Structures are given as structure tokens and as C-alpha cells.
Amino acid sequence: MTGEAYAAESEAPPPAGAPDRLAPYLPWTDGTGRARGAWWRVPLAARGAVGYLVVSWGLFARLAHDGGAKYVIADDRVGAWVYRIPDLSQNAPRAVRSLLTAPFLNHDSLQLVYVTTLVLLFGVVFEAREGTRTTMLVFFGAGLAAAVGAGLLLHVIYPDRSGGAFFETAWERTWSGGSAGCFGLMGGLAARARRPWPLLGLFALWEINVEYWHLRSYTTVFHFIALGVGFLLMRYGVQGRFRACH
Fold this sequence. Notes:
Layout: H1 3-9, H2 47-63, E1 65-66, E2 71-72, H3 75-78, H4 87-90, H5 92-101, H6 109-130, H7 132-157, H8 165-172, H9 179-191, H10 197-215, H11 219-237
Antiparallel strand pairs: 1-2
């Protein structure tokens, strides 16, 4: 089924299944977005999310090798296509190129599984409600803003104001994958709730826990910027098809 056919079938009343006390805190209960229709149709309306996963998994299968505990994509195989923060000031053409390609190159199997989980949990439903063009705008727009914003912030911090190992690692390593774009979609999803702050706070708490228990890296700066950008885009920029007055 094409996106247009899905949209034509989606001219239905806003969802009404959420309990009244929870409705203000859940996305799309005010009639924003397009009606979901039957659950089995959701994957058919999420061709952008599915296409992203197909490309990402295909590239990973082609480029990754056994790194012991997990499969990894070596930097020497994709060095020109993954993002390095110093390139913003030292090699602008490569920075631009890598910002376009890096979202498709998840650097190890753990990141690939994590991004896939986020896409399936949030990206598919977001696209079914908001459409492919909006989903791609938020995913790539928030990811791009996060990469540039986190990069510029690190230029301010390092090395003049901090020479610590944490920031040195962030400066020297490469960055790639779709997790920042997924956090943009999560921010956009929260923005579609009449009272978005509990859901936005839940997503922020999610990231804080992942940072504390696993990441321990500058990645969280990317994620928080993307979460905020996705929220602002959907809250104050993109209007829903059935946008209600608040």
C-alpha cells in the first residue's frame, strides 16, 4: 500500500482508547497526526523506517568483522564516511560528506541492535502517524543538528577549557550511527502530547540510565541535543493534519 493510499484510509476520528487521566500525557490523543488504522497496517506505512533499517543492516553485513565480543566496522574501512568533530574546523568538505553518510554506519553490533530497537519502538509508529517526509525530516534534521551542535560545543570546551581524557576521547574518536536521529523522533513523539513534559522527562531519564550504566561517553550530548531539536520541530514547527488548539 502506498503512503497516499494509507493516508486516504486514515481520515478517521482521533484515537480514543487511552484512559482519560493519561490522555493528556500521551501522543496523538488530541487528534494530531493521521489515524493509525489497524495495527497490521503500521509497517506498511513506515517505509522510511524500514528502508533505513534495510540499508543499515546491509552495510553492516558488508563491512563488519568479528571483533571478539561483538562485530565491528573498522574505521580504516569507512574513515572518509564517518564523522570526526575536528573536521568541522579542519576539513569542512569531509565533515559535510560524513554528516550525510554516518547515520547509516552503526559502528558495532550492539549499537546496531540498539538503534534497530529504537526505530521499531518509536520510529515505525511515529512514521505511521506523521508520514514519511516528516519522519525523515526529524530523524535526519535532529541527527544533523546534534552532530553539529555537539561538535561546536566540544570546540569551545576542548582543549582550552578542558584537557581531560573524557573530552580528548570525544575529540579523537569517530561518530556514526542512527541513535541521535532516533532520539529526535522520541522528542517529536513527546511533542505530540498535550502535556509533553512527563514523556520528555522519561526519555531523558532513559538516556541518563544508559549513560550511567553503559556509555560513559560524549554520546549523551548528541542524544540530548537531538531530543530537544526533535521536540521543538514537532511542537512549534510541523503541524499535524488534525492539529487541535491547546
